[in-house]
């Protein structure tokens, strides 16, 4: 969970970690009277496109009360984004949540939140709050989207993204900036990347499995932290997060230059795949191919599940990259998405 994982990271952002811990532990020293306490750091898991229910249950129904559901903004852990407020009879929705969120009200004690058609950015920390005169109570629940984290670098080279550039770059590849929890999970699955990248909370990290001098000296394996960085003045790579897709990625053999590759996909009623889409097909649909192919961002990549000698001799499974070759003269296949 977020909190535990944050505490594993030592270095330079203690004050920020403290803020998060304070946030989580707000009600820990108080027994809740009206709300059922979920198991510590309750977590709901779902995939993109699915519906999810975030459970919240009353112990007793107070005579007068209001229920407020909100989502915690990852950049400002103290600020809340209100989803809906109900007085037990009527529900008022806020902003974008109108079409997406509803109060389940399966029985008299049920104040669970239903979310439909989950999107990547729906993951995060939600708060169920009972407002009852002076005695407000709240419980928090984490919604995780099942997915895959991938590092992303600009076509202009290493460390070119401000925080906002990184956010945009991920969005353009059918992804969002990853959370710390998502990066941590991917690291346990074998992600190693010796370049620092932005996460969605404005911190910068990099995941290392095989410590070596160029990647943080003699520190043990782990997620290395630069802590929170300046969002417009400093530049790094990005860690993007994506999930399952409705369509899938397939390979069209070359030799093709970039324009010919785009055309080859179009002829098949498809388009050149986004980086998020090839990662999704690799992770969830078992896409494996020992041939470099063009993607829509102008990079050339190939997805490997079982590493083989004759396939570059790369030691780890993953979507490997040839970088951004010259579009007019380099010849590869094409990875198309349909
Ligand atoms: C999600 O909820 C909506 C609205 O309640 C429903 O129409 C849809 O079938 C549900 N989808 C899934 C995958 O259960």
Helices and strands in order:
Layout lengths: L1 H7 L5 H12 L16 E5 L5 E3 L11 E7 L7 E7 L4 E3 L7 E3 L9 E3 L8 E8 L5 E9 L1 E6 L10 H10 L3 E2 L2 H9 L8 E2 L4 E6 L13 E7 L8 E7 L5 E8 L1 H10 L3 E2 L2 H11 L7 E2 L5 E5 L13 E4 L10 E6 L1
Parallel strand pairs: 1-9, 12-15, 18-21
Antiparallel strand pairs: 2-7, 3-4, 3-8, 4-5, 6-7, 8-9, 10-15, 11-15, 12-13, 13-14, 16-21, 17-21, 18-19, 19-20
The structure holds 2-acetamido-2-deoxy-beta-D-glucopyranose (NAG).
Highlighted features:
alpha+beta, Hyaluronan and proteoglycan link protein 2, disordered N terminus, 338 residues, 6-stranded mixed beta sheet, 17% helix, binds 2-acetamido-2-deoxy-beta-D-glucopyranose
Give a short summary of the structure.
By secondary structure, the chain is α+β, with helices and mostly antiparallel strands.
Description of the molecule:
By secondary structure, this protein is of the alpha+beta class. Helix content is 17%, strand content 31%. The strands form four sheets. Strands 1-9-8-3-4-5 form a six-stranded mixed β-sheet, with no helix packed on it.
Largest sheet strand order: 1-9-8-3-4-5
The hetero compounds bound to this protein are: 2-acetamido-2-deoxy-beta-D-glucopyranose
Radius of gyration: 22 Å
Strand elements, count: 21
Helix and strand element order: HHEEEEEEEEEEHEHEEEEEHEHEEEE
Oligomer: single chain
User: Per DSSP, what share of the residues sits in E-state strands of 2 or more residues?
Assistant: 25-35%
Number of helices in the DSSP assignment:
6
Largest sheet: 6 strands, mixed
Distance between the termini: 35 Å
Proportion of helical residues: 10-25%
């Amino acid at each position: 969970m977020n909190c535990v994982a944050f505490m594993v990271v030592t270095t330079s952002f203690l004050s920020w970690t403290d803020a998060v811990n304070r946030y989580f532990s707000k009600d820990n020293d108080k027994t809740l009277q009206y709300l059922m306490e979920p198991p510590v750091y309750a977590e709901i898991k779902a995939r993109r496109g699915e519906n999810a229910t975030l459970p919240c249950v009353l112990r007793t129904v107070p005579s007068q009360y209001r229920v407020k559901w909100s989502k915690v903004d990852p950049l400002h852990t103290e600020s809340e984004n209100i989803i809906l407020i109900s007085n037990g009879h009527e529900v008022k929705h806020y902003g974008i949540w109108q079409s997406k969120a509803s109060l389940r009200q399966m029985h008299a004690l049920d104040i669970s939140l239903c979310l439909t058609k989950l999107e990547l950015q729906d993951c995060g920390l939600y708060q169920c709050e009972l407002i009852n005169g002076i005695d407000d109570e709240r419980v928090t629940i984490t919604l995780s989207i099942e997915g895959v984290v991938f590092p992303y670098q600009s076509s202009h080279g290493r460390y070119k993204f401000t925080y906002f550039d990184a956010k945009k770059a991920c969005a353009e590849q059918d992804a969002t900036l990853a959370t710390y929890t998502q990066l941590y999970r991917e690291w346990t699955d074998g992600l190693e990347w010796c370049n620092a990248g932005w996460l969605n909370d404005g911190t910068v990290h990099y995941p290392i499995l095989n410590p070596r001098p160029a990647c943080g000296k003699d520190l043990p394996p782990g997620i290395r932290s630069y802590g929170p960085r300046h969002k417009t003045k400093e530049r790094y790579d990005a860690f993007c997060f994506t999930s399952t897709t409705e369509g899938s990625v397939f390979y069209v053999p070359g030799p093709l230059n970039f324009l010919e590759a785009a055309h080859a996909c179009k002829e098949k009623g498809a388009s050149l795949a986004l980086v998020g889409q090839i990662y999704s097909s690799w992770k969830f649909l078992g896409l494996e191919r020992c041939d470099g192919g063009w993607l829509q961002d102008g990079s050339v990549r190939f997805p490997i599940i079982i590493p083989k000698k004759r396939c570059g001799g790369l030691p780890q499974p993953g979507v490997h990259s040839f970088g951004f070759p010259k579009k007019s003269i380099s010849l590869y296949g094409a990875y198309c998405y349909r």
